[in-house]
Design a protein that fits this description.
The chain is an all-alpha fold and 720 residues long. It has helices at 11-27, 41-48, 58-61, 69-74, 82-85, 114-122, 124-130, 139-143, 163-171, 174-179, 187-193, 195-201, 211-215, 235-240, 244-252, 254-260, 269-273, 284-297, 299-306, 309-315, 324-328, 348-352, 379-416, 418-430, 440-464, 469-478, 481-512, 527-534, 544-557, 571-595, 597-600, 607-637, 647-650, 655-661, 663-672, 684-719; strands spanning 86-87, 104-105, 434-436, 652-654. The protein folds into three domains: 11-155 and 174-189, no CATH class; 279-365, no CATH class; 409-719, Fumarate Reductase Cytochrome B subunit. 58% of the residues lie in helices and 1% in strands. The radius of gyration is 41 Å and the shape is elongated.
């Protein structure tokens, strides 16, 4: 019989082997087999102790005929006669014995292992063997042949520390795996790497389970058999043999009660912990696995959880945020209306305080599994989401059309007279007569805008597109989501700084120049003069003239009039300027609510955190998409500016460009006699070698981020 393994044995069997056989020999006459053969072991070993013994038949060549006497004497069967095991109506006088037919190997004869054999015959291994499957595990495949040792012996095949190797002989055999209905080919290696395997094989804890503790010994049954130790309803009892208190707690939980009703939807131990890949519950791997396992039954809840900071940060590998069981419990999960439930109204605040010590009742009103598409359950989230979506789609649609028309008109001009078009572009770039357009303070603040905006996008967008591979790679390079969160807040602080600085500088300019708001005849402040300054040509505030410019510019797109002349600020620049105030306000307030939720929920409802998350996320996407697409086109991508307009870094504009694009400003300076006052100095030459590479690098980073964002959005839409 070939040595095939996969059959599990316990300490009890080996004790029977050691005790039962010895008792049998004590009652038999010396030298006489229990079954009547008058042979001594020396008679058998006279031939079989020859390691060069040759077989006389084809069947004999497949057998191991050599028997090492020393090994036999060290085995648990050292007091038995050979014929106690090799029995039946056979003739041992001739060679080969029994005319070359198989000898009966009987492990259950007399007072031996009849109970164990009876169990084996009903097991999955025994049934396969009874069907004629010679590769099915039988007694010698697990226990050995002439070298059988007690299970407590560290060298025994059935010893707790060796049993996984014995099982692996079949359960890692390619022949067995391919020809048998074994659907889990990594059971043994996964067990070795599991918390159970490491406790047993690395730490040497004999209380840790081995294969037989879960599957059984001689009575192994498939998991589909209701009597199997690993069937759905029996698993808690099997695990409970070690985890006694946990079994009691689980049986009393909502999950245990469902399982007790024979409901297949109820989870069992291995639903969450899996069978052979049990990870320590404190590891990130287990926390991630637990969320996924919960989601197999609670799919909608997991989808809602994934839309929250907790779910996305967890998916990105952050282990210090709340997983499912941090709120709902572990083995003691109860329905929400049960007073023992951690998320019951009487207990939920304390549950929140495990992570948020200053949580209050309003804070606990945060919607953990929010679904913004459910109008009936969450109307406030539904309308905010669709409001932001409408704003995003509307803005993108308008400026996409605007950009395409502008690009079309530019290419049409190039195609009609490419030589003139190139000459004009060359003149703008090579003109050495330059004028100051942006002050050093304005350029410094814009540098802060670039720095903070890129930092916010790089650290924030991976959280929004947590499912994208690039998001995970990017966060890993930063040191994880926790590090990204700190950097994100630094970006927010820089944003607040440049906004406060800009508003303060504007306020100071207005205060110091307040005389311009007074009527020179009356000496009193005049609303008309205030309006003239606020909406005048030097102000970035949009006015009536901008509406006229939009109409004129769009007519130029269609070739219905010449290109309009602009003043200091174009209408698209004014839109960008006002968009900064809108974006910083929306993103800033919502970000502060999420940054300090305990404080804001002192006077706001808990769902305001959910609303803040939607606004923050969608407004950030709108800002990033707009800047990296339409702002970049207006400033850098349009043909007459490509590959990059350096005005915001140098602060200067050539006379040719000033006349070609902002002739109204040039004419106004000439009329005022202030043209020479605006001539640029020579300070740019001393530091442009630093400013331009940095500016171009920031520009390239923005382009890469734009591609990644659009790719993530497209993959999500296609996937859905």
């Amino acid at each position: 019989m070939s040595t095939k393994t996969g059959f599990l044995f316990s300490l009890f069997l080996s004790m029977l082997v050691a005790g039962g056989f010895t008792a049998a020999i004590a009652t038999a006459e010396p030298g006489v087999s229990e079954f009547g053969y008058d042979y001594d072991n020396t008679d058998c070993l006279g031939c079989h102790d020859d390691d060069e013994l040759e077989a006389d038949t084809e069947r004999g060549e497949a057998l191991e005929l050599f028997v090492d006497e020393d090994v036999l004497e060290d085995s648990v069967h050292d007091q038995l006669l050979c014929t106690d095991c090799h029995q039946g109506e056979q003739d041992f006088e001739d060679s080969p014995h029994n005319d070359g037919e198989a000898l009966l190997l009987n492990c259950s004869g007399g007072p031996c292992h009849s109970d164990q054999v009876a169990e084996y015959e009903q097991s999955i291994h025994g049934k396969w063997f009874a069907k004629g499957d010679e590769d099915a595990a039988s007694c010698p495949d697990c226990h050995g042949v002439h070298d059988i040792l007690p299970a407590e012996d560290r060298n025994s095949r059935t010893n707790k520390f060796n049993l996984h190797k014995t099982c692996a002989n079949c359960h890692e055999s390619e022949l067995i795996l391919k020809s048998r209905p074994i659907h889990y080919d990594k059971a043994v290696p996964d067990f070795i790497d599991s918390i159970h395997g490491k406790a047993l094989l690395v730490d040497g804890l004999v209380v840790a389970p081995s294969c037989n503790d879960c599957h059984g010994v001689h009575d192994i049954l498939p998991h589909t058999d209701p009597d199997s130790r690993i069937s759905r309803e029996m698993v808690p009892k099997t695990c409970g043999e070690c985890h006694v208190l946990v079994e009691d707690i689980f049986n009393a939980s909502v999950h245990g009660k469902v399982l007790a009703k024979h409901d297949d939807s109820g989870p069992m131990c291995t639903t969450c912990h899996t069978s052979h890949v049990s990870s320590p519950p404190t590891t990130l791997a287990f926390r991630l696995q637990a969320d996924e396992m919960c989601g197999e039954c609670h799919e909608k809840q997991l989808a809602g959880y994934r839309d929250t900071f907790h779910g996305r940060a967890m998916a990105l590998g952050r282990s210090d945020v709340a997983a499912c069981y941090d709120c709902h419990g572990h083995h003691d999960i109860e329905k929400v209306d049960d007073l023992k439930s951690y998320i019951n109204g009487d207990n939920i605040v304390e549950t929140c305080r495990k992570c948020h010590p200053k949580a209050n009742e309003n804070f606990a009103g945060y919607i953990v599994h929010a679904n913004h598409s459910d109008k009936e359950a969450y109307p406030q989230l539904y309308y905010v989401f669709w409001g932001m979506t409408t704003l995003l789609i509307g803005t993108f649609a308008f400026f996409a059309l605007h950009t395409l028309l502008w690009l079309y008109r530019s290419m049409a001009l190039y195609m009609s007279d490419s030589r003139e078009w190139r000459e004009e572009k060359t003149q703008v770039r090579e003109d050495t007569e330059e004028f100051t357009r942006f002050t050093p303070l304005e350029r410094f603040l814009h540098a802060l805008v670039i720095m903070s905006f890129l930092l916010l996008v790089i650290t924030g967008m991976p959280l929004k597109f947590y499912y994208a591979g690039w998001a995970q790679t990017m966060l890993a390079a930063m040191g994880g989501q926790a590090v990204a969160a700190v950097l994100h807040r630094i970006g927010a602080i820089i944003t607040i700084f440049y906004m406060v600085t800009h508003i303060s500088s504007v306020a100071w300019a207005l205060i110091s120049g307040r005389q311009q708001f007074k009527n020179p005849e009356t000496g009193r402040y005049s609303l008309s003069r205030i309006g003239a300054v606020a909406f005048g040509p030097d102000s970035p505030m949009p006015g009536i003239q901008d509406v006229k410019d939009v109409i004129a510019h769009n007519k130029w797109f269609f070739g219905r009039r010449p290109k309009p002349d602009f003043d200091r600020w174009t209408y698209w620049e004014k839109f960008d300027y006002m968009a900064v105030f809108w974006g910083v306000s929306m993103i800033g307030v919502s970000g502060l609510i999420m940054w300090f939720p305990e404080f804001f929920t002192l006077f706001l409802p808990g769902w305001s955190i959910n609303v803040a998350h939607i606004i923050h996320s969608d407004e950030a996407l709108l800002a990033a998409g707009f800047i990296f697409t339409f702002h970049f086109f207006n400033v850098h991508f349009r043909p007459d500016k490509f590959p990059m307009d350096k005005v915001m870094f140098s602060g200067r504009i050539s006379k040719a460009e000033l006349i070609g694009e902002r002739k109204k400003l040039y004419d106004r300076w000439v009329a005022e006699g202030s043209l020479d006052e605006h001539r640029a100095g020579h300070e740019w030459e001393s530091w442009k070698k630093i400013a331009l590479p940095l500016g171009f690098s920031a520009f390239l980073i923005g382009v890469v981020l734009m591609v990644l964002i659009y790719f993530a959005m497209a993959s999500r839409l296609i996937g859905e």
